[in-house]
Write a structure and sequence with these properties.
heterodimer, A: mainly beta, 6-stranded mixed sheet, 5-stranded antiparallel sheet, about 0% helix, B: mainly beta, 7-stranded mixed sheet, 4-stranded antiparallel sheet, 11 strands
Chain lengths: ~110, ~110
């Protein structure tokens, strides 16, 4: 079973609007990461947030983590058509876990 | 740097045939991974390796074998392909436990008839 579940499954917005995607996970984690996948391509790492962090920024990206609710959100501000892609959260469980567990993804469409 | 490369990009097999997918990375990463991605789903881990000569099972290892004879290469084998193995396969690598940001290859689209 997958560690992460994302919400919504699909999101369509106008260029310039903000996009928010949510991820929930089941067990305690060491860190949580967000990846982007353009159609027909491999995944690209966007940002990592550790379990002792609550918020992190990178350019137009803002990630929050609430370990008490076992959830994370990714906010993309001032979206562009080029942001159209699938977005996945991936969690690394605590302890010596060596692998990431990926969620099922959110398909974001940004309309020009 | 080429990053992570995968060979081949596309392949069509008949049920029962075998094949090997090759993954290569030039970043001197210790960890390497094989995933499969099916429509509307995230990635599921097949096998992974934490160093040359080591391999470990992931979430969906049945029907696959792997080898990591050289640090830069990670091979995924299908001994007797089944239609259920039709998927897109991604290879990834990372430095190790920390940081464990993963770098992905472009994928191999495999169809088993």
């Amino acid at each position: 079973s997958q560690q992460g579940e994302e919400d919504p499954q699909a999101l369509s917005i106008q260029e310039g609007e903000n996009a928010t995607m949510n991820c929930s996970y089941k067990t305690s984690i060491n860190n949580l990461q967000w990846y982007r996948q353009n159609s027909g391509r491999g995944l690209v790492h966007l940002i990592l947030i550790r379990s002792n962090e609550r918020e992190k920024h990178s350019g137009r990206l803002r990630v929050t983590l609430d370990t008490s609710k076992k959830s994370s959100s990714l906010l993309i501000t001032a979206s562009r058509a080029a942001d159209t892609a699938s977005y996945f959260c991936a969690s690394r469980m605590g302890g010596s876990a060596r692998q990431l567990t990926f969620g099922s993804g959110t398909q974001l469409t940004v309309l020009p | 740097n080429a990053g992570v490369t995968q060979t081949p990009k596309f392949r069509v097999l008949k049920t029962g045939q075998s094949m090997t997918l090759l993954c290569a990375q030039d970043m001197n990463h210790e960890y390497m991974y094989w995933y499969r991605q099916d429509p509307g789903m995230g990635l599921r881990l097949i096998h992974y390796s934490v160093g040359e000569g080591t391999t470990a099972k992931g979430e969906v290892p049945d029907g696959y074998n792997v080898s990591r004879l050289k640090k830069q290469n990670f091979l995924l084998g299908l001994e007797s392909a089944a239609p259920s193995q039709t998927s897109v396969y991604f290879c990834a690598s990372s430095w190790g436990l920390e940081p464990n940001e993963q770098f992905f290859g472009p994928g191999t689209r495999l169809t088993v008839l």
